[in-house]
Amino acid sequence: MPDVREISVVVPTLNERDSIALLAPRIADALRRYSYEVVVVDDDSSDGTAEEVEKIGRSYPWRLYVRRGQRGLASAVVLGMQIASGRIIVGIDADGSHPPELVPALVEPILAGSAEMTIASRNVPGGASPGLGADRRLLSWGASVLARPLTPVKDPMSGFFAVRSDVLARGSLAPVGYKIVLEILVKCRPSPAVEVPFVFAARTAGASKLGSLEIGRYLRHVGRLYAWSLTGGARASMTR
Asked: What pTM was estimated for this model as a whole?
């Protein structure tokens, strides 16, 4: 059993060998004042990502779990959160679009007791998404509109967040697709959930996994969350 840390950074990967090596020293520098670990959940990459993570683990506090026969960003993050030992869980993408340098700004409100969850937000003053093309910005806007009745958070489509680990016990997380933040907001009801300005950069390597299949999964996910809310799931989670 790993030692308990202040922070566990969960990184889902699928064919991210080129970008993951760039991430390691940046995380180490950003979190040098904290006790931390990095938990990588790899969906059986074919490009040597797992081997690269094992190499990184010789120099940094990184752990690897390889899933076989299952894929999906959000479910990989859920598994990473279950494996993690940290009192605060941080979710971050491996492709460089989420700057590790922002992690202290995400975890400090939680450590100070002024937030149960923080979300790196492109949609609050100071936030932006120059790393997204016009089509991706339109998709993100439409997805946010669909989710608006479920949460007041302005950027529930963000995949960059921090949350107190005990908050996750309030709900049974079973996301479809890649929007883990929305799943946590709806099922675990973190209060307050604070948005921190975030500039979404272009990925440093690799290719986006977003396509028609992921869009379809998101629509299924939102439909399931609406059904869960309407059938009393939200009330049940608030009593836990």
From this structure: 0.86
